[in-house]
Specification:
Length: 125
């Protein structure tokens, strides 16, 4: 199967190389595409789930690499979601104190950028 890698930039600027055993991720991500954190995780679940099933159809077993990659994405995203909730709550408290009870605002949504999609040999898709 043609494996593919997608390079991700998390909300704090950290980067991660992610694996898929199938090019199906190209149906869910574009190079340079920016996604809300929750949307990125949901797209990852769908794409890597399909990729794992494609391996099952071809080889008779689900791809553990796809499952493990999804687990890493979910753990990483959970940390950013928790930080965003904490920052949002602190920001809302500060805004309420400054603007009064009706002036609270939430924090901006965390975003993830898919910087590139590349073949296993590193060549761009």
């Amino acid at each position: 199967m043609p494996e593919i890698y997608f390079h991700v930039r998390w909300p704090d600027g950290a980067t991660q190389r992610c694996y898929s055993p199938s090019t199906v991720v190209e149906d869910y991500f574009t190079a340079g595409g920016e996604y809300e954190l929750a949307d990125f995780v949901e797209r990852s679940r769908t794409a890597l789930g399909i990729a794992g099933e494609r391996v099952r159809e071809k080889f008779g077993f689900h791809c553990t690499g796809a499952s493990e990659q999804l687990a890493v994405i979910e753990r990483t995203a959970a940390g950013y979601a928790s930080a965003a909730r904490t920052a949002g709550a602190a920001g809302a408290v500060r805004a309420t104190r400054a603007a009064g009870p009706t002036g609270a605002t939430g924090a901006a949504g965390a975003r993830v950028t898919v910087e590139s999609l590349v073949n296993a040999d590193g060549s761009p898709r």
